[in-house]
Specification:
single chain; 541 residues; mainly alpha; Serine Threonine Protein Phosphatase 5, Tetratricopeptide repeat; two-stranded antiparallel sheet; 39% helix
């Protein structure tokens, strides 16, 4: 779908649709209106492409990590991540208002499409059914995000008027979730499997994406039996799509491997048309970045196991605090940049990244940690999703994966453990498969070791953390597990380059507070409640 570049036309269509509220005896012939627009498949496709472009944001994708314990948004407050992580926000926070509007704008586009597409009488019936299913999926995705952040939210399945929008009330979360699940089931019926799309349509929503998103919705609701059954539709039945782990964890996130066997749903970008440059403020300064605005934390780094499968705190792990990055889970090097990191440049040369004060033999020392500098406030940078083919200022069109098959395996492992059914067979299909792909070879790291449900829960949750690190999902996991009240209270740390007298020398990067009485739900935006008095507020706000 990267060949599509009709966003401008689509927005003109929306503007025409929004303004076409007057009764006219004659429809203008020199511009699009409701009465003359819905005439061709191409025009309908332009509106649907707009809905795709509104589905998610690259800024949310990256900066949501800064709202979790995986990263710190150290400069500015990009997407409100620093305020959200530190608990220093209220209903006036810009991110909260922005995201509310973002999702309802996307819902509006989907509703406009669904209410008008049948007016295109010449469209192939099968294609029309598929396009409707795509729009219903996108609308369901928006409602899923809304109820995940806010709980009860206004639910409507048609394009409402401005007057209606000023008086609508919140719908109970359970009802919104039920709507989302039913919409995904209906969409899956009319969506093709991933292998059925032609190359020109790669990246479009598939039957497998509808099933995988349904599994995620169920996961967030702790409906374990349903999660397991839904995941099995993708793990055991090729009639719903053909998916597998891509052989290389590093290669999974490189542009030459887009649309690989692991990708179930991604956020699409188009060279010279739709790009992003987040890495300009995430990569090391020594390789051309501007400053650091999103830094991985020591807490994330510590979560990576040793190659022998032991935690760094376990007896016999072999962990050396003075040489902390050796013999670790290989995914650490594919995700986080640390002191002495060998950064592979596009020309295959290597740039050594020095973050520890005094280690850089050069004169400029751009990445050395120092309080108040533009270098990383934790002394860590991000590698995952670096695009070697990016243009000036790290301008990239690399797709961002929203759902991948590894997540299906992790959801399945978590559900089976919560059901008391995580055995060697399930382990081998999920955790062992992921660790083998990552590069583990030691038998203790790969083989199933029976333990209590609580012990296995800790293992599965940590596996989810490291496998999906810096992909924007951690914040949702700690909220649904109700562990945010623990991991977002206290200091977020950086590398051991701080005063030895404080926290054993680990940098104190950011002090966080999480109030379990109110922070598990975002407040309804202040400005929305000012316009609509029927919008009640969440507890504690």
């Amino acid at each position: 779908m990267k060949k599509y570049s009709t966003y401008k036309t689509a927005f003109l269509v929306l503007l025409a649709s929004l303004s076409a509220c007057k009764k006219l005896d004659l429809a203008p012939t020199n511009k699009f209106t409701d009465s003359n627009f819905w005439t061709t498949t191409e025009k309908a496709g332009a509106v649907l492409n707009t809905a795709y472009s509104q589905m998610f944001s690259n800024d949310y994708f990256f900066y949501n990590e800064g709202a979790s314990d995986n990263a710190y948004n150290g400069r500015g407050d990009n997407q409100g991540a620093a305020s959200l992580a530190a608990g220093t926000y209220d209903p006036s926070l810009g991110r909260i208002k922005q995201e509310w509007g973002f999702h309802y704008s996307g819902i509006k586009t989907c509703n406009i499409f669904l209410e008008n597409v049948d007016r295109v009488t010449a469209m192939d019936a099968t294609l029309k059914a598929r396009m409707k299913a795509e729009a219903r999926f996108i609308r369901a995705f928006h409602y899923f995000m809304l109820e995940t952040w806010w709980g009860d939210v206004p639910l409507f399945d048609h394009d409402i008027s401005i007057d209606e929008s000023k008086s609508i009330a919140r719908t109970p979360k359970a009802q919104v979730v039920d709507f989302v699940l039913k919409e995904l089931d209906a969409a899956a019926t009319d969506l093709p499997v991933n292998t059925a799309y032609k190359d020109a349509d790669r990246g479009r929503i598939t039957k497998g994406a509808a099933i995988a998103l349904k599994a995620r919705v169920l996961l967030y609701e702790s409906r374990w039996q349903d999660v397991a059954a839904t995941c099995e539709k993708l793990m055991n039945d090729n009639s719903n799509g053909t998916y597998s782990l891509f052989p290389s964890y590093e290669g999974l996130f490189l542009p030459q491997n887009e649309y690989n066997s692991e990708v179930i749903l991604d956020l699409e970008f188009v060279p010279d048309v739709k790009t992003y440059s987040n890495f300009f403020d995430m990569a090391p300064l020594a390789v051309g970045a501007r400053l650091n605005a999103l830094a991985p934390t020591q807490e994330l780094v510590d979560s990576y196991l040793m190659e022998n499968g032991k935690k760094i705190t376990d007896p016999g792990s072999g962990y050396d605090e003075n040489n902390p990055y050796v013999n670790r889970d290989p995914r650490l090097t594919n995700t986080v940049v640390y002191n002495g990191y060998k950064w592979k440049k596009p020309d295959n040369s290597v740039q050594i990244i020095y973050t520890k004060p005094g280690d850089d033999p050069g004169a400029t020392k751009p990445d050395e940690y120092a309080p108040g500098k533009v270098s990383s406030p934790t002394a860590y940078y991000t590698r995952k999703y670096y695009d070697p083919s990016s243009a000036v200022n790290f301008q990239s069109a690399l797709n961002l994966i929203l759902i991948r098959y590894a997540d299906v395996l992790l959801m399945y492992a978590e559900a089976k453990n919560e059901l008391g059914q995580l055995d060697a067979g399930v382990w081998d299909k999920t955790i062992k498969a992921l660790r083998s792909r990552a590069g583990f070879t030691d038998a203790p790291a790969l083989n199933f070791a029976a333990g209590s449900q609580a012990d296995l829960r800790e293992i599965v949750r940590n596996e989810r953390r490291v496998e999906l690190a810096m992909e924007g999902l951690r914040v949702f996991d700690i909220r649904r597990w109700h562990t945010a009240e623990t991991v977002l209270n206290g200091w977020a740390h950086g590398a051991k380059f701080g005063p030895a007298s404080v926290d054993n020398g680990y940098i104190r990067a950011n002090l966080r507070t999480f109030d379990k009485g109110k922070n598990y739900l975002w407040p309804i935006p202040r400005d929305e409640r000012a316009v609509d008095p029927n919008l009640t507020q969440n507890p504690g706000w």
